[in-house]
Amino acid sequence: MALLRKINRVLLVLLVLMVCLLLHSTFLRASTRPKLSDRWKSFGKAPQVPDADAVVPVIICSSEERMGASMATINSVKSNTDASVFFYIVTLRDAVKPTKFYIEKSKLKGIRYKIVEFNPMVLKGKVKPDSSRPDLLHPLNFVRYYLPLLDISHKRVIYLDDDVIVQANIRDLFNIKLKPGHAAAFASDCDLPSTHEMVRSIGMQTTYMGFLDYRKKAVRDLGIHPRDCSFNPGVFVADIDEWKKQKITKQLEKWMEENFRQNIYSSAMAGGVATPPMLIVFHDKFTTVDPMWHVRHLGWSPDARYSENYLQEARLLHWNGPFKPWSYPAVHLDLWEKWYVPDPSGKFSLERPESDS
């Protein structure tokens, strides 16, 4: 009997050891399992934020070919505020090192930032090639769809396109009060009556009719009136928790896939393929931003101009359209160029007409 008890004790100890080993193995696998956000890697200065409520987080994309544009945007933001701004700079793998070099070797070296690498493979099967304006199909144009999946640590963020200049305190835009149930705030295209004549003169649309193909049943079934006011998603404030709750990213991907199948919109219609899914998903479900925080269409014509007084009062300027202020021809170049930060590597340079002298 004594021998049997010893054998039982040994077996019990072995059993306990096996259970412990199994638990340890399971825990180890769980702790090393790649997260969804691992599709985006982070680089650069990322100091801990002691008081997230006191920080204004800004997301901006930086492509290698337009890096000087995003740096001008960053410079304009930081130069016009006393707020603590944290920049999430989203780029592709080939631009990670050049982006960091641009910042660290220029007047921007003191900014607080994190470089986030975007994986374009998430767009596979969702974006159809379109030759009318291939620049609008750049993977970074769709980063705004995937905000909750980026490696960010703030619950509210501002998203800015790289062809934007901020002329006022960015904190004022960040502090906008979102209505209950709204995941984002945009500026409506119908909120600037003083600019309607200029907008019409360059053929820009201000309603859904200019973005969606109402000949398609999938569009008509949405029940959206073609004359409803559109908005431009190049500048917006987002509530990340509400975005997740409403599964906004999944909704946007659904309409990308629908367009891939039956072409319900295209880049030939009023400005690109990134806007229509946002218009569909956020129809009647967004808070409106003060229109002076998004004075746009500056890049739609090399000739049509706003009054100088009006532009001085604007809090944010957006050169959406093909005529960018770092290129030539374009309008209101002086308002953009004052924030330009020369590329320390010399790769990015301004296109300007040669002097007659």
UniProtKB/TrEMBL annotation:
<dbReference type="InterPro" id="IPR029044">
    <property type="entry name" value="Nucleotide-diphossugar_trans"/>
</dbReference>
<dbReference type="GO" id="GO:0008194">
    <property type="term" value="F:UDP-glycosyltransferase activity"/>
</dbReference>
<dbReference type="GO" id="GO:0005794">
    <property type="term" value="C:Golgi apparatus"/>
</dbReference>
<comment type="similarity">
    <text>Belongs to the glycosyltransferase 8 family.</text>
</comment>
<protein>
    <submittedName>
        <fullName>Glycosyltransferase 8 domain-containing protein 2</fullName>
    </submittedName>
</protein>
<keyword id="KW-0328">Glycosyltransferase</keyword>
<dbReference type="InterPro" id="IPR050748">
    <property type="entry name" value="Glycosyltrans_8_dom-fam"/>
</dbReference>
<dbReference type="InterPro" id="IPR002495">
    <property type="entry name" value="Glyco_trans_8"/>
</dbReference>
<keyword id="KW-0808">Transferase</keyword>
<dbReference type="Pfam" id="PF01501">
    <property type="entry name" value="Glyco_transf_8"/>
</dbReference>
